[in-house]
UniProtKB/TrEMBL annotation:
This is tRNA N6-adenosine threonylcarbamoyltransferase. InterPro entries: ATPase_NBD (IPR043129), Gcp-like_dom (IPR000905), KAE1/TsaD (IPR017861), TsaD (IPR022450). Substrate binds at residues 137-141, 170, 183, 187, 285. Its cofactor is Fe(2+). NCBIfam families: gcp_kae1, T6A_TsaD_YgjD. It is found in: Cytoplasm. The keyword Cytoplasm applies. Its EC number is 2.3.1.234. SUPFAM superfamilies: Actin-like ATPase domain (SSF53067). Fe cation binds at residues 115, 119, 313. Required for the formation of a threonylcarbamoyl group on adenosine at position 37 (t(6)A37) in tRNAs that read codons beginning with adenine. Is involved in the transfer of the threonylcarbamoyl moiety of threonylcarbamoyl-AMP (TC-AMP) to the N6 group of A37, together with TsaE and TsaB. TsaD likely plays a direct catalytic role in this reaction.
């Protein structure tokens, strides 16, 4: 099977081709990503209208490049998969319209993909992983624990009740005058900082569930910063490094502790070979990774973190998730809808704790 995937739900315009021959591992033949960071840089966040226009301009370029890089034409494909949500509606619509156009012009089957399912199925694209496995999705827009049981079968164990961790990293960086995206900037500064100097909160650890909260942590950093500024007139390099280290450690501790609880729930189901996987840009963080890795070792689970380019938004994961759906017989028609909200777990309330 050879599938073209399209992704345009946030601020990356992406197209990729994934193929899998009977009895072989899936293979990424090409993966093109056009980021929009510089378009939104002046606004301190993603501007939906600008994003949608850029997606509309770049999608067919990305498709042409993905085909060229794979040395293929549309005639070599078996289906077109596209992110149909959740995300910014203008961007999702751009992708869905592009995919429908391709499908109408070529007769290729169309498969709509949930963006979060794309992230959640990535471990099966990169490694031989069997269902069910535990997935921690930690990105700029999302934070949730999922038991992945099948291409379309997910159980949500919990997630953030306010900010996503990436959002907290970005806001903390902004508070300290560091560059965006905040995650890498905070991690770099934290290297020379003392994580114990500031006592920052570990929210919700007193509750037994798998829910998290990050907005109070960011506020605590703001208070600590203002107190130093009031006392000394400004922040030294060391103050900033200590705040970064304290913040990062608090996020890592919270994620590790809640993951411990999620693993407990997951292991109860007696998976033959327990696997805990992470995805999302925050999974790039060394301190967070180390905490999760140590925890998995202790719990006897295999820890999987896909390469960073596949952790953040890309179309290879959409092509692959589309392939899993396609193989299971799923086909969408010209009535495929673009959905701004689309929870993975049909039993969980649509708006509760998705972080977006
Ligand atoms: P989503 O995919 O949920 O729509 P997104 O596109 O913003 O959201 P990603 O591209 O997966 O998310 O990740 C970007 C986020 O990851 C940013 O918030 C960024 O600060 C964070 N991030 C990147 N590298 C690191 C790091 N080393 N440490 C912590 N956070 C990081
Ligand atoms: Fe994403």
């Amino acid at each position: 099977l050879t599938i073209l995937g399209l992704e345009s739900s946030c601020d990356d315009t992406a197209a990729a081709i994934v193929c899998q021959a009977e009895g072989h591992r899936p293979e990424i033949l090409s993966s093109i990503v056009y980021g929009q960071a510089e378009l939104h840089a002046d606004f301190g966040g993603v501007v939906p209208e600008i994003a949608a226009r850029a997606h509309a301009e770049k999608l067919d370029v990305a498709v042409a490049e993905a085909l060229a890089a794979a040395q293929m034409t549309l005639a070599d494909l078996d289906a077109v998969a596209v992110t149909a949500g959740p995300g910014l509606i203008g961007g999702v619509l751009s992708g869905v319209m592009c995919a429908k156009g391709l499908s109408a012009a070529t007769g290729l089957p169309l498969v709509g993909v949930n963006h979060l399912a794309g992230h959640a199925l990535t471990p099966r694209l990169t490694d031989a992983v069997a269902f069910p496995y535990l997935m921690l999705l930690v990105s700029g827009g999302h934070c949730q624990y999922l038991i992945v049981r099948g291409p379309e079968e997910f159980t949500r164990l919990g997630g953030t009740i306010d900010d996503a961790p990436g959002e907290a990293f970005d806001k903390t960086a902004r508070l300290l005058g560091l560059a965006q995206p905040g995650g890498p900037a905070v991690e770099a500064d934290a290297k020379t900082g003392d994580p114990k100097r500031f006592r920052l909160p570990r929210p919700l650890l007193d509750r037994p569930d798998c829910n998290l909260s990050f907005s109070g942590l960011k506020t605590a950093v703001l208070r600590a910063r203002d107190q130093i500024v009031a006392e000394k007139g400004g922040l030294t390099r060391q103050d900033r490094a200590d705040l970064c280290a304290g913040f990062q450690q608090a996020v890592a501790d919270t994620l590790t502790e809640k993951t411990r609880r999620a693993i407990r729930l997951y292991i109860r189901e007696n998976p033959a070979e327990p696997v805990v996987a992470v995805a999302g840009g925050v999974a790039a963080n060394g301190t967070i990774r180390a905490g999760l890795q140590a925890l998995c070792q202790e719990a006897g689970a295999r820890f999987l973190a896909p390469p960073l380019a596949l952790c953040t938004d890309n179309a290879a994961m959409i092509a692959y998730a589309g392939m899993e759906r396609f193989r299971a017989g799923a086909r969408d028609g010209m009535d495929l809808a673009a959905r701004p909200r689309w929870p993975l777990d049909k039993t969980s309330p649509a708006l509760l704790g998705s972080g977006k």
